[in-house]
Design brief:
- Two copies of one chain form a homodimer.
- Chain A is of the alpha+beta class and about 190 residues long.
- The first copy, chain A, folds into two domains: about 35 residues; about 140 residues, Nucleoside Triphosphate Pyrophosphohydrolase (Alpha-Beta Complex), CATH 3.90.79.10.
- In chain A, strands 4, 5, 6, 7, 8, 9 and 10 form a seven-stranded mixed β-sheet that branches. In chain A, strands 1-2-3 form a three-stranded antiparallel β-sheet, with no helix packed on it.
- The two termini of chain A are about 35 Å apart.
- At the A-B interface, strand 1, strand 2, strand 3, strand 5 and strand 6 of A face strand 1, strand 2, strand 3, strand 5 and strand 6 of B.
Amino acid sequence: MENSGLEWKRESGRKVFDCPVFLVNEYVCRSPDGLRRTYTVMDTADWVIVVPVLEDSGEKEFVMVKQWRHGSQGLSLEFPGGVFESGEDAPTAAARELREETAWRAGKMRKLGEFRPNPAIMSNTVHIFLAEDLRFTGAQELDEDEYIETLRVKPRDLIEGMGRPPYVHALMGAALALYLREYPQIP
Amino acid sequence: MENSGLEWKRESGRKVFDCPVFLVNEYVCRSPDGLRRTYTVMDTADWVIVVPVLEDSGEKEFVMVKQWRHGSQGLSLEFPGGVFESGEDAPTAAARELREETAWRAGKMRKLGEFRPNPAIMSNTVHIFLAEDLRFTGAQELDEDEYIETLRVKPRDLIEGMGRPPYVHALMGAALALYLREYPQIP
């Protein structure tokens, strides 16, 4: 896509806040026609989301996780996923999050696409994978402050529920859109 | 959905950063079994996304906007949308953003659903609307630092492009999932 006429340049930046989860930086930017403005950006590690599909006698089910979310102050039913650990690439992070949160391992894993969770105010990328040929390993490996219940969800229930509690996490909607592109004919 | 066993309680909070776009607060929270942890949350106004559909002789096209995004440092092709202004409700914000960014008004507007953009670290909600029966008003009403190009996009191009540049904005993927629930048979 042509950049000309819309592309800004970053001239300088400075850190204005940090915590273990993210940094906040302010960047002075210059517009195509010379306007100068300061924009605040949350800089953080990349994330991964895994869409795990169990198939039994032709019937598909998603493996999903129910957990409390401290931003929304509510429960959320989501595909497994999380933050890249230091040095991880996307497939490694995907396999690890799937195993830790759900106790399933994937025989087949492939990338469906990637998004910017919020390109206006965040710099990171969320990588979305499809996980198939699942094998149960027996036990989740949760952090001390992770309380996660694993559930199986029928595709029709997920599609009909999306955008209403407990299917409130927008990034799961984005992951579902990529899944529906590949498998539009869900029964 | 049952909360028991997963629900945390907020015990206290304090502001650790603010800027015109968002606040960052730290909350001390207590887990179901008494663990105490501090979580950092970005508190900000609600957002709206509008999926504007033009229909001409049975052929549908989305009205979309191309703009530079300062978090991702790149161009993004998106449905129109933005931040609620003070005192606005969701339908008012939706109509305003559609008009300002695209110069189209909707004869019919209805809500498709809502998501938490990031329930882990953000408190706000994004409200997603379908806009139909569109009428062109002639001119965008852009802020001084908004440089927005309006485009018409065929549904098939959007679906095939989603999750790759320039369709990088995750919330647009979530909006598309809600649209595809209502109109799964896009040609």
